[in-house]
Amino acid sequence: MNFISRNIAADVDGEFAARSFSPPLKSERKWPIRYRSIELFATCSDVAIILIAGILSTLLYRLYSGSTAADVSKAVGSAIVVSALCVSLLKMRGMYRPPELLAFRRQVHAVCLSWMFVFVLLSAAVGVFNIGAELSRGAGVAFAVVGLAMLIGHRVVMRALLSKGLNDRKFSGGNVVLITDQARSQDTGLAEALTALGFRLAGHFSLPRPGASSSYRRRLSGLVVRHARGFDIEQIIVEADPNRWCELREFVAELRVLPFPVVFVPVGAASEMFARPTRDLGSTIGVEVQRGPLTPIECAAKRSIDLIGAGICLIMLAPLLALVAIIIKLDSPGPVLFRQQRCGFNGRSFAIYKFRTMRVLENGPSITQAGPADSRVTRLGKWLRRTSIDELPQLLNVLEGSMSLIGPRPHAMAHDSQFDEAVQHYAFRRRVKPGLTGWAQIHGCRGPTPTRTLIEQRVEFDLWYIDNWSLRLDLAILLRTPMEVLRARNAF
User: Model's pTM, two decimal places?
Assistant: First the structure.
């Protein structure tokens, strides 16, 4: 222990003690950026990179082609629009938060999908408004390639710098005092986490045992106040079980004489409640332990997206759908579309549309799920199922309102009854409309579910989606679905 810890420990006669802490050596050089500023820094640097990529790609195209059609001022204008759209999409998905910046594969997927979406959208806008003559196509292609490469390279650098900063504790930060009721054997690692984020632990105290007299708590608060006034403290962090709040409230109230924030970090079983959303109930606040149905406004917004998205997709994919229908008819005898009863919103059944991929049309109380090398699957059906093209007719279900673009995937009625008996809370999936794609599907939950574990995993993803629904989440799932289809995990 250093001299501060020894003096405090002696002052309290062993009832509660200051834990030892090791302030960083003066020779350690900190970076000028704080951990909490990383998101802002990453966002601004992305904007700058896209602007630089727009100018650089235009200059390179002019140098390569010898053309003067590519105007730098127009390139800057285009880059501003692209950066605004792309950065907004990434921001909506939370991709600038430090934990996400460390997930390189998710970053690459998000950047590629957002970049592709922006350029497809702008290409459509150029065609609609007939302004293609004012822009250079060659410079635009160069911008798409150079910009994407620079954004991915930026992720490589950011991940390396962030990892180094956390491992070497390079981020700058203020002094904090940590007060905890956790025994050393149950250490949650909060002290180490604060140090890694750049905070300097200027004091580490242990709370008295539960049931200790108020005089002991007052003595501790007095020691904390005197200790804090001797340092340039930024905040006090109290880590404790929420079940102790009745006695902690008096202790925290005595810290109000200090002119900086006191932050409570809950631990233990009761801390799960703090992660749940809250609701105002008059003069009281309630914790939402189960999310209810979507509000009328949320339903209207989701339905609008379904109608617009499904309508655009059907128009754009009409040639492909017609071609697939013709090939199915030529490939094997039987109808082009296959209808099967599925369980939908609130347990109501509906007929789902699919391109026929099998030689049989099972739609009864006993249905066998398709597996690898299934002899029932036609030659064309194998390709259709692997690419999920067989599911595209469900856009008609979306238009008629029995399905949504995003939601839990519906199962056959026979399987639905089996899963309902085997998996607890399975019926909770019916609180929303089933979807063409969903949170479970972009995490690889596709294909057959021969074991209870696979069913439970899929249900867990579906319930998380229902409890955390937002338009931003739906957009993120839509952007990630094409990449998952190309990966073709568990698709038979």
Answer: 0.58
